[in-house]
Design goal:
The structure is a single chain. It is built from 16 helices and 14 strands. The chain is of the alpha+beta class and about 525 residues long. Bound molecules: adenosine monophosphate and magnesium ion. Magnesium ion binds next to loops.
Length: about 525
């Protein structure tokens, strides 16, 4: 039973703060076009056939003070078939650099923002339906989303939150009852797939590209309006009258983005499409598409088959974030008197990323960031060793946590590590000997520092997830849901809401990638088709 203070979603009070405070336009709502001098366009959702509530986030609903209430009414609302008083459906205008090139106007081509509500803690949360039909920004696409990508976004948003990684949230997953045509591999063989809509929730969905579009068009008035709005409502710690406010704000965006990058590296997340339209101004993980998780430790891994050059590969992400911040800085130039005032922000990115990644990386091996007494080298060496064979990153760090580094067997590796390897029968001798040397050095370091095993394990348990929503597991949940069986999805949600605790009853979701998934569609390779 939800606490009594919780009110049914369909009886909640809504507003649309963003739409009330910023200029918009109400041209033909479903006609693709260039929209100028507006931050948003009126965009009523296109109703669907037979909405069905497939999943609901109880933890998020609780934080919002919401109860699900009547599920049929909720499904209708979150499919876009009806609106509540105070809601105002809009699509936001933004642009972006895609794969390094300016792409012009993009905008919410299928996300429709309904409005926002105040949570009991005073935070304002905007509700957005992803896949709710055509908007002025749909270009040649259909405004819809498929079950496969929607389920992935729902589960991953939930997982990221519980992993402690800043993210937009997802409240609900609704099946539309309408098929959607997708060419999943861009190979000229489109197929019908079930459609679905995710209800995304965040304090704001403003992106780097939201500023770039106005700068590119020379629309300094809108650029300033949007920047002032974002500062006033999302960065209250910055004095809105401070002449240096844009520089201070940019530095804070850079700092948050750096923290986010460190988290992504720590949990092994690869976003897949870090275009500037997919970077949140609040430093949240946003726009889950062809994302993936490291199975094998491989800095060059990307799940996105569209990204042939590996621009957005795992280890490239901090550098790309910095490149994207440069694009944001370019966009903000008209607001600052001298470009140099944005430089401390760029420095803040580098400094924050370095210290934050260092802290988190060391926590992964149970050490604290002391003045460097070789601990950085210890972690760097370990990552280098992991690249010598196919080792599962997530399983390895949890196994390292449970083994006693002071008790190395006479030959070979500690038995705790056995289950981590994808090709255990052919472990390179260089790998075994270097890992043995490393474990000895690690053990010596722990002894020198007087770190008890209890402390070490507690630190490691908080930094190394026991479970992440691996692509092959998501694919299994998608296959079952497509056949009408939601039980796997529900079990998976329970498991990923407690990611740092070993849950033997959910072991199947934490297992290393099975051989069948090595090259399977949706498991190791994803396209942007969603
Ligand atoms: P993404 O890289 O997936 O974040 O999307 C890039 C741009 O394409 C955004 O402007 C999206 O709104 C738009 N887009 C992606 N898929 C669709 C779709 N099915 N219908 C309309 N617009 C879409
Ligand atoms: Mg996007």
């Amino acid at each position: 039973m939800p606490p009594r203070s919780h009110s049914p979603l369909t009886e909640s009070a809504f507003d649309h703060h963003f739409a009330r405070h910023l200029p918009g336009e109400s041209g033909p709502p479903r006609q693709s076009r260039q929209v100028t001098a507006a931050c948003w366009s009126y965009a009523p959702p296109t109703p669907v056939d037979s909405p069905k509530l497939l999943a609901w986030s109880e933890p998020l609903a609780n934080a919002l003070g919401l109860a699900v209430g009547n599920t049929e009414k909720v499904a209708e609302l979150l499919a876009g078939n009806r609106l509540l008083p105070g809601m105002k459906p809009i699509a936001a205008c933004y642009g972006g650099h895609q794969f390094g090139n300016w792409a012009g106007q993009l905008g919410d081509g299928r996300a429709i923002s309904l409005g926002d509500m105040l949570a009991p803690d005073g935070q304002r949360w905007e509700f957005q339906l992803k896949g709710a039909g055509l908007t002025p920004y749909s270009r040649r696409a259909d405004g819809r989303a498929v079950l496969r990508s929607s389920l992935r976004e729902f589960v991953c948003s939930e997982a990221m939150f519980h992993l402690g990684v800043p993210t937009t949230r997802a409240l609900a997953l609704v099946g539309t009852g309408e098929p959607v045509m997708r060419d999943m591999f861009y190979d000229g063989r489109p197929e019908m797939e079930p459609g679905a809509i995710v209800t995304r929730v965040a304090p704001s969905f403003v992106r780097f590209g939201s500023f770039e579009i106005f700068a590119a068009r020379g629309d300094v008035e809108r650029l300033q309006q949007l920047a002032d709005y974002v500062i006033a409502h999302h960065f209250p710690e910055i004095d809105a009258a401070d002449p240096d406010r844009y520089a201070l704000w940019f530095a804070e965006v850079a700092r948050r983005t750096a923290v986010l990058m460190a988290h992504w590296l720590r949990v092994g997340f690869v976003h897949g499409v870090m275009n500037t339209d997919n970077l949140s101004i609040l430093g949240l993980t946003i726009d889950y598409g062809p994302f993936g998780w490291l199975d094998v430790f491989d800095p060059e891994f990307t799940p996105n088959t569209t990204d042939q050059g590996g621009r957005y590969a795992y280890a490239q992400q901090p550098g790309v974030a910095q490149w994207n911040l440069l694009r944001l800085a370019d966009a903000l130039l008209p607001l600052v008197h001298r470009p140099e005032v944005l430089e401390p922000g760029l420095d803040a990115f580098g400094e924050t990323f370095e210290s934050e990644w260092r802290r988190q990386a060391l926590q992964k091996i149970g050490l604290e960031a002391a003045e460097n007494r070789g601990e950085d080298d210890l972690m760097a060496r370990l990552l280098g060793i992991l690249m010598l064979t196919e080792v599962d990153t997530t399983l390895f760090f949890r196994a390292l946590m449970t083994l006693d580094p002071a008790r190395l067997p006479a030959t070979g590796l500690p038995p705790e590590l056995e289950g981590c390897f994808y090709t255990p029968q052919i472990l390179p001798t260089a790998f075994v000997s270097r890992l043995r040397d490393w474990l000895a050095a690690y053990s010596a370091r722990l002894r020198d520092e007087g770190v008890s095993d209890e402390t070490r394990q507690a630190r490691m348990a908080a930094a190394n997830p026991w479970i992440i929503p691996r692509n092959y597991v998501l694919q299994e949940a998608i296959n079952a849901a497509t056949d009408g069986d939601l039980s796997l999805l529900q079990q998976l949600l329970i498991a990923i809401r407690n990611p740092y605790t070993a849950q033997p009853e959910h072991a199947r979701f934490a297992a290393k990638r099975p051989e069948w998934a090595r090259q399977a569609p949706g498991c190791s390779a994803l396209s942007c088709s969603s």
